[in-house]
Design goal:
With about 500 residues, the chain is an all-alpha fold. The chain folds into 3 domains: about 1-205, Up-down Bundle (Growth Hormone, Chain: A), CATH 1.20.1250; about 205-260; about 265-505, Growth Hormone, Chain: A (Up-down Bundle), CATH 1.20.1250. It has 17 helices and no strands. Helix 4 runs antiparallel to helix 8 and helix 12 (about 305-330) crosses helix 14. It starts with 12 loop residues before the first helix and ends in a 6-residue tail after the last helix.
Length: about 500
């Protein structure tokens, strides 16, 4: 990949030394935005009367937009220059977040999150690609470590600040990213060198449109599962999305100028990378959102209190990344790291299920710490495997696909976990109240629970207690289910790595 720097973009040594930390801050802006949105979601749902599918779509739309657009914005960065792309992306993120903050209705909120996702996804992808431009010769691993450390620490600070703002008013939480992005525009122009555009030829446009449409349609269908598990329209939408995604794969095998090498989907190491990405992103999304919701709906914590209880879990991710990174430097394999990640994450989800009856958030912290260690262990091979499999002529799109697949799995985590808990809670309430109420009384009770979810007005104590018990049980089933999935996917990924290593030992091949 050509990363030549224009002569006019030379910076002083002092300014250049701040470039890598700045990239970490940019990554943290993107990384903290979904966390802030998750913390503010209860307030936003109540303020904008979101229910069922709207809430699930609102929770996943930002990450969905990132997944749908980041490869295209990565190609655009190669065409117009990465620094220019960063500035444009930050401005788009500002516009999207301000639209969310001012949203008068759920539809505008969701649209604002979509705009935010396009901008923030481009910010992260461009920032990550900048690392090799700024890293001193032979110091790329150190630069990546600095990037990760600053990103992790900054994300903690931004998420905590967003939680404090959400406690005052959910709309204020969405002003933080615009402020940080505006300051970052100035820093980008001052500290980052311009990079010569590297893409001049045409790339398949229809395939990009199929990928974007396929992800949007498929995940919209997933979000509607919260409304009905049996609605043929919901399953029809999901099927249409799957067909569009299949069309994307097919198109890349037929066009003269494909934008993505779909043959990678047959390579064991790339498939193992996707397994690692699933454990990481799905686990983070489901655990963060559902712990946040349980602490607010069931335990009655304020958003600021939730942010405080999230700190030890988030800090564990930072420390875990450092420790696990050192272990990998000393010889721990990708295979071991991925397997360890699946097992630790599973242990954390089981611990979360066991703690579901507790009235103290402290009981959930050990579970959160185990999950944090597990998903961090999976995140390490997620990046290294994709980098190792990226062909030189498709380096940008393939490395950007790390974000695409990551956000796809994150969106599935938020949407599906919301679907499962919602459906199990509804069925649990009906089962608990049917013995002493007729059908109309049960319907009225369900309506009062929905009012509590939106407005915070508690229903009759008997109804509330039944709802809390059903919610705890639904939470427990979800945690056990994800634990099983984490083990299965972790084992599958580790076996794929082992298979690839055996094939390489038998018939060595060179990879760009």
């Amino acid at each position: 990949m050509n990363t030549a720097v224009t002569p006019t973009a030379t910076r002083s040594r002092a300014l250049a030394s701040l470039g890598i930390p700045l990239l970490g801050v940019l990554a943290a802006i993107q990384g903290s935005a979904p966390n802030i949105a998750a913390t503010a979601l209860v307030g936003a749902s109540r303020g904008l009367d979101m229910v069922g599918g709207d809430q699930a779509l609102a929770a996943s739309m930002q990450t969905l937009a990132i997944a749908a657009s980041v490869i295209t914005t990565g190609l655009l960065a190669d065409r117009i220059g990465r620094r220019r792309m960063l500035v444009i992306a930050l401005l788009v993120a500002i516009a999207g977040q301000l639209l969310v903050a001012a949203a008068p209705a759920a539809l505008v909120y969701i649209a604002g999150q979509a705009v935010s996702g396009v901008g923030l996804g481009a910010v992260y992808a461009a920032a990550f690609a900048y690392i090799q431009v700024l890293a001193a010769p032979g110091r790329l691993p150190a630069a990546v470590a600095t990037f990760a450390a600053v990103a992790g620490a900054s994300s903690v600070a931004f998420t905590f600040a967003g939680g404090l703002l959400a406690s005052a008013d959910w709309r204020l939480a969405f002003v933080l990213v615009p402020i940080l992005s505006a300051l970052s525009v100035i820093a980008v122009l001052a500290l980052l060198p311009a990079v010569v555009p590297t893409l001049t030829g045409k790339r398949d446009v229809w395939g990009q449109l199929l990928l974007t449409a396929g992800m949007v349609v498929f995940l919209y269908g997933v979000s509607q599962l919260a409304t009905s598990l049996t609605d043929p329209l919901t399953w029809g939408v999901m099927a249409a999305g799957a067909i569009l995604l299949a069309g994307f794969v097919w198109s890349q095998t037929r066009v003269a100028k494909p934008f993505f090498p779909v043959g990678l989907f047959r390579r064991p190491l790339f498939l193992a990378a996707l397994c690692a990405g699933f454990v990481f992103n799905f686990g983070v999304a489901a655990s963060f959102l559902q712990l946040t919701n349980l602490w607010q709906y069931v335990l009655g914590l304020s958003p600021s209190a939730v942010a405080l209880w999230q700190l030890p879990i988030t800090l564990t991710s930072i420390v875990g990344a450092i420790l696990l990174g050192r272990l990998m430097t000393r010889g721990m394999s990708d295979q071991t790291s991925l397997l360890l990640g699946g097992l630790l994450a599973a242990a954390g989800f089981v611990a979360g299920a066991l703690a579901r009856e507790s009235d103290s958030p402290l009981a959930f912290v050990p579970a959160g710490i185990l999950i944090a260690l597990g998903v961090t262990a999976a995140a390490l091979p997620y990046g290294t495997l994709i980098l190792s499999e990226a062909p030189a002529e498709f380096y940008g799109p393939v490395t950007s696909s790390r974000t695409t697949f990551g956000q796809l799995f994150y969106s599935l985590g938020t949407a599906l976990s919301t679907v499962v808990v919602t459906q199990l809670t509804v069925h649990g309430i009906i089962g608990r109240l049917s013995a002493g109420m007729n059908a109309s009384e049960v319907a009225a009770a369900l309506k009062s629970v929905g009012t509590f979810a939106k407005d915070g007005v508690r229903p009759d104590p008997a109804v509330f207690n039944a709802a809390v018990a059903a919610y705890r049980d639904g939470f427990g089933v979800l945690m056990i289910s994800i634990a099983v999935i984490s083990v299965v996917v972790g084992v599958l990924g580790s076996r794929l790595i082992a298979r690839a290593r055996r094939e390489q030992d038998g018939t060595p091949t060179a990879h760009p």
